Amino acid sequence: MSTGTDFFSCLRGLQNLVDKDGHPLPPGPPLRYPFLPKYNERILHRWTKKYGPLYSVWMGNQLFVVLNDPTVVRDLLVVHGANFSSRWNFFMKNQTILKGGAITATPYNDTWRKHRRIANTILAPKAVESYSATLDYEAHMLIRSLFHDTKQGLIPVNPAHYAGRYVLNNMLSVTFGTRTGSVADPLVRRALPLGNEFMKLTGPWSNAIDFIKPLQWIPTRIRSRGRKLRKDFLEVYGAMINLVKHRMESGENVPDCLVKSLLEYQEDEKLSWTDMCLLTTAFATGGSHSTSGTIQWFLAFMPSHPEIQAKAHEELDRVIGRDQWPTPEDEMRLPYVRAIIKEVTHHPIFSFPLFCSRPSLSSPFWMATPHCSDNDFVYRGMFIPANTVMMLNCYSLHHNEERYPDPFKFNPDRFMGDDYSSTESSKLPNAMDRDHWAFGAGRRICPGMPVAEKEIFLAISRLLWAFTIQSVPGEPISLDEYEGNSGRTPLPFRIRLSPRHDNVRSVLDARAETLVFLECRLGAVGRIAWHDGNGANLTLPNKVADAVSCQYQDAVLLMAPDQIVAHVQPTKS
Ligand code: HEM
C-alpha cells in the first residue's frame, strides 16, 4: 500500500491511502480526530448520511471503518468473519483494564476460542434452562422488594439499584452459584459502581489517551482510574472465586456455575488465575450492566407512554389473568410485551441537540464492541487494511428508515409478528429482517443473548403485570441524557409504581426471600464469631470460615445445597 504524505498529514486523515492495486479506502471525513466529543453517535450518524453504508475515519493514527448497513455488516462480520473477528488494542480497555483478557478484549486466537468455548457452554440455551428457577426466583424478589419497599406504591423509588441487584444476582448465580440479600448489600454497592466505571472509561471514540501515544506515558488521572479498576476487578472477583474454591474443597455441593467449571477445567485448559478473574468479571460486569440498562430504560420510558402500558395490561389480563403472573413459559403468548422489549432494545432515547427543535435519537446500544481486521481486504472496490477497527454502528442501523419506518417514534407495533428470539433473528438469511443489532454480529456476537432475553422478559412482563408505572409530579425523567460511554444508562430518576389490582400482594407474598443473615466479626486477631440476625451463635465449616477471614474484605455470600441460605457480612471490630 502507499500513502500520500505532506506537511499537513498529521492533521489530515490518510484518505488517499490505496492498496497495491489502487483500491482506495472507503470515503470519509478528511481530518484526524483525537477523540469524538460527547454525543458522538450524532456525529457518526451525520457521516452515515453523508458517506453512506461504509465509511472510514482516522482516530489519531488509527483507521476506523464504520458499518451502517445490514447487508454490509453481514458481508463483512458474518460471511468474512474469519478476517473480521479480532479486537483492536485500545489503550484504556484492552491494554490497561483487561490486558487482552475477559474474552471481550482477547484477539481472535486460540486463547479466545478456548475462553469462548467455556462461555458458550455456560450460556447455551440448554444450560440456561437449568438457571430458569433462579431467574424466576430473582424476578419474583425484584417485584416483591419494589412492592414492599415502596409501601405498595406510596413512596417513589429510584429503580436503578433494584434492576442492578436483580441482574447482579442472576449473574452471581450463573457465575458463582450465589446471590446478594438486599439492595443495601455491600457487594451491590461495590460491584455495580465497578461496572459503571468500566462503561465510563471505555467508550471506543471518547478517550484521547487511546489515540495519542504520549498521553499513555504520563501519569494522568484517567490512566490511574483504569489501573485502579483493573486492581479492583481482580480483588473483588478473585475473592469470590477463592470462596467457591474453599466451598468445593470443604465438600459443599456448589451449584453448577462458571467458576465451578473454571476450577474443574483449570489444569486441562491451562487457565491462569488472572484468566479466571477476568472471565468472571466479563460475566458479572458485561452481563449485568447491559441487561439492567435495558430494564432501567424501559422504566424511564413507560411513564410518558400510558397508552402502551394500557395495551400491555390488556394483553396480560386477557392471556395470563390476575390470579397468577407470567412465567418463563408464557413468553410466546405475550407478543405485545415481547414487542415492547424489542423496541426498548432497539431505540429508547429521544434527545434535543443544541439549537435544534427536532428530536434526534440516541440509544443505549448505539455501538457494539468494535471488531478488528486481521488481513488486508477489498470490499466493493474499497480497501480495508489489516488492523482496522470495524465499528458496528447500531445507532445508524437502528434508525434506517427502510427497516424501521418512522424511526423517531417509540412504536412496539413495528415488532408485532416477529416471533423470533434475538438469537434466532441474528441467524436469518436476510440481514434486513434481523430485529436489532444490540447484541453485535458474527463470531463475537454476544454469547449471553439467551440468558439476557429470559431475564429481561421476566422482569418487564412482571413489572407490567403488577404495576402502573408513573412519573413523580415535578420530577421529569430525562430521556435526552445518559450516563456511560460504552454502555449507557439513564440519569438517576424516580418513579411511582402503583399496584394494578388486589391480587398483586397475594401473588407476590406467595414466596418470601429465604435469607438467613449472618454476621462475621473480624474482631480479635484470628478469631471469627458467627451469629445470625438474632444473635444466636452459628457454626460454619472451618474451611469456609478461614476463606472468609483471609480473603474477603467487604462481603461474602454463601449458598448451601438447598438454595440461598446465607449472607455473611463482616462488621467492624
Ligand atoms: C441486554 C443485554 C446484553 C447486551 C445488549 C449485550 C451486548 C453485547 C455486545 C454488543 C457484545 C459484542 C458483540 C460483538 O463483538 O459483535 C457482547 C459481547 C459479550 N457479551 Fe453481551 N450483552 C448482553 C448481555 C450479556 C450477558 C447476560 C452476558 C453473560 C452472561 C454477556 C456476555 C458477553 C460476553 C462474554 C461477550 C464477549 C464475546 C466475545 O468477545 O467473544 N452479555 N455483548
From TrEMBL:
Domain of life according to the entry: Eukaryota
Cofactor: heme
Gene Ontology molecular functions: heme binding; iron ion binding; monooxygenase activity; oxidoreductase activity, acting on paired donors, with incorporation or reduction of molecular oxygen
UniProt KW keywords: Heme, Iron, Metal-binding, Monooxygenase, Oxidoreductase
Chain positions recorded as heme binding sites: 446
Family matches, as Pfam families: p450
Gene3D superfamilies: Cytochrome P450
Listed InterPro entries: Cyt_P450, Cyt_P450_CS, Cyt_P450_E_grp-I, Cyt_P450_sf, Cytochrome_P450_fung
Pathway(s) this gene product operates in, as recorded in its UniProt entry: Secondary metabolite biosynthesis
Keyword Protein transport: no
Family from the record: Belongs to the cytochrome P450 family.
Protein known as: Cytochrome P450
Organism lineage string: Eukaryota, Fungi, Dikarya, Basidiomycota, Agaricomycotina
